[in-house]
Amino acid sequence: MTDPYQNQLLNTVSPCAAHFPVPGRIVCVLHARAEARGLSLAPFPSRAVLQHEIHELIITAEQAAPGQTVNRIAYLAFFEVLESGILWAGDTLRLGEQTLGQLIGYDMTHMPNHMNIIVRVSEPLKTGLELGLQLGQSLRFEHTPTPKKGDAA
Predict the structure, then answer these.
(1) pLDDT tens-digit profile of 67-76?
(2) Closest CA to 79 of 132, 123, 126, 30
(3) In the chain, what are the domain boundaries?
């Protein structure tokens, strides 16, 4: 099979023009870090998530994209997907009204149990406990438009 992203067959960085936000709620607050985790981001920029699935949120300050590796991380939380939808690299993660960072990829180490969803933030890296996350707290991934190749930034 030919992967259109790995083989750069598309005229855009992201073919997703728009998608509904994906809401969730925190079901487990995490408190751990790793300096050399070696998360291997899957090469694809999007994932469909289904209502009631549980996935893990991990943050990094590293510049990375699908197909790359992330090492220095902090664990935030597990969350339940409240409405099925599409997640796309570049989406913005919001906790309530606070912008946390941008989705950069997915690590599939624990599938089919759950996906690790990796979000880039600015320093310092804080765990979910250090950020004061609460059980039941709402979050959502929102679409961030991506320019086509050759568009002015």
Answers:
(1) 999 999 999 9
(2) 30
(3) 22-142
